[in-house]
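step=predict obj=Beta sliding clamp n=375
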Amino acid sequence: MKIVVDSSLLAEALSDAERAVSGKPVIEILSGLLVQTTDDGISVSGASERATIQSYIPDDQVKIVRAGSVVLPKIALELIRKMNGEIELDVSRNFEITIVNKSEEIEITGFDPDEFPQPPDVDWRETTVLSGKDLKEFIKKTVFSVATEAKVPEITGVNITLLENQIKLMATDRNRVASIQRPMAVKDYGSAIVEARGLIELEKIIFDKDEVQFGFSKLQSGEVFVVFIKTDRFTFYSRVLEGRYPDVERMLEKVVGLSTVRVNKKEFSKSLDLIYTLAKEEKMNQVRLAASKTELTIKGNGKGMGKAKGDVQPLTFEGEPFAVSLNAKYIIDLLKAIDSDVISIEYTGKMTSVIFRGDDSEGSRFIVQPYRTQT
């Protein structure tokens, strides 16, 4: 293989594909990046045991002197980032790689591309289209709530449902839930659990302006085995997580708000962040919220370091006064996912879920389980 291409274009394609690569690859070949010529230009692939990202450089931006393929070692990306202008990348039959520009020459050894795993075969006929901006928002509003330990693998991912002309995303670690639901012209494709790590990396390479093809690929049994997302710059594939996702939706249907306080998000965030500075010294990041018609009070204690209190003026209040102890870090995380200037906090009863929402148009809600404390 021999190609001539701008170093910044190649570096960008390599960087996008590298986001699929695991920090601890299960086999050595997965530490590298597959570069191959195609009828439309060149593609660059990075892969882990679960996800693959293929990025593209179109044929009008690359000169293909000799067709072929090679797996570049991890260090190649760092080297190409440090080169300027047009470069020539020449690969011998033994996968010895020479990279040359006007004033520099690098020789490195690559891997056999036949050993690199191919992306899964998918059915491109069943897809829905959404904007990059919307997909980024869906990921942002849910992915932070997944479990980080793999004791229950299915809750280390985000559950995505395309059903009844709606798209729904949900994440939980059993102590909190983040969900978003929007109307969308989709067929009843079903549900799939997508690994959170892949979605986090995917969000970083999506542009707001991207038109995104989004789909599920199924086995003959009807089970979804791959989720795929395609733009004109890259394709993302993720094998779904096995297991049955908790029936959080049914649990949420039983939750009814008894009292609701609405506050300015900026004021509430500022006060909570101050209290959290002390509260994070405690193991559970615990803060106490006490709400009434006249004020919302936030209290927190530091581990042998003191205590802090802040008051926020409610915009509206409905129901009876209430007090509840929550994990401050969970609240801070969800506040970052709410775009509205005003948030509502719904109290549903003693030792039951507390619901946080932004504006109704966001279509999202966030639930935090309270701590058991004495009144």
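step=describe
Residues 2-115 form a domain with the DNA Polymerase III; Chain A, domain 2 fold (CATH 3.10.150.10).
step=end
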